[in-house]
Amino acid sequence: MIEQVAIAFDNKDYQKAAKLLKQLQKESPEHPWVQFYLARLHEVSQKYQDAEKIYRHLLRDTRNSRIVTLARQGLARLQEIEQEQRQRAIAKATSQPSNTELGVLILEPLSNELKTEVSRKFAQIMQIDPYSARLTLPSRGWRLYRTGQVGELKFYGEQLQQANIPCFWTTITAIQEIQVFQVKYFSESQLKATVVCRNQANQLGSLTFDWSEVTARVVGLLPIFEQVVDIDAHRKLERKTQTQDYAQFCDLHLPGRRCILRLSDNSYEFQQGLEIIAQASQNTIRINWNSLSNWINQQLPHVKNWSDFTPFADTALEQTEMLGKIQSHIYLFRREQTNWDSAFHLYSGLVFVK
Length: 354
Prior knowledge:
The chain folds into three domains: about 1-90, Alpha Horseshoe (Serine Threonine Protein Phosphatase 5, Tetratricopeptide repeat), CATH 1.25.40.10; about 95-175, CATH 3.30.1390.10; about 180-354, no CATH class. Helix content is about 45%, strand content about 25%. The chain has 13 helices and ten strands. The strands form two sheets. The protein has a seven-stranded mixed beta sheet, with helices on one face. The relative contact order is 0.09.
């Protein structure tokens, strides 16, 4: 009867093939040829997952070289079909002009137990090997996984979310639309807080807000680089760039006003405005900054403090082209341009839009 099934497939008489296979499954359900033609029937019926499952089972458990070859060919056809479907879906996802904007896809952290569970799904969706997939999925903090057209990122992101892999995506434009005010000092903080600040046009003014408007606080360290002279292994002088210090930053998010209040230990005027720190003029900048940070903590006891900027930056710094399109709104004196500043603004902006 297997010969009759083969003839039915050759003639593309799938209805007859299905009828014959139904009988054969009752008589010899585990016979390799019965299993193979059942996979072929699933394939032509567009039940691709069922077909793949049987083909892989045959590759693993069958010693018949002819069936092994045919199963490999079947899997190759399924991969071609999947690739064609993927390309059509991506083309559709990026067909609208708004979906061609530059964006980023961010992976959110998973416990090690969940990583083991979902890494195979991640590998299948992103078409990478399971070992690399497990290494890619983050355990702590966000990972900037991919940049590109936001329509394509959304296509992948939705598949990942359906597989219980936490992620999100956004456009660079959405980050750039957030207003940033450079805080010089707090002038009031009783019923409401008032900051003296500069806007993006460098105009000095003030902004009054209620502490309840603040939904997030983002902190980070930005390295300050200097050229130093060192002695190499051959006892020759060489110039190289080293991290000499770090600048401290703190962003307060006011989404109702579509703005960020940005504070920095390099630019905050500790001796001006509200007396938050006793004897500020006699303290080091670090002592003053720590005192200011503690005071802000007291005003925002229930607001989440986002402090995983450095591990995020490790995943983002090589994206030079994308970071080059982001205005950092950070004004540190630098002898050479660095991606660290744009990476911090991206991180803070991602917290804001999410």
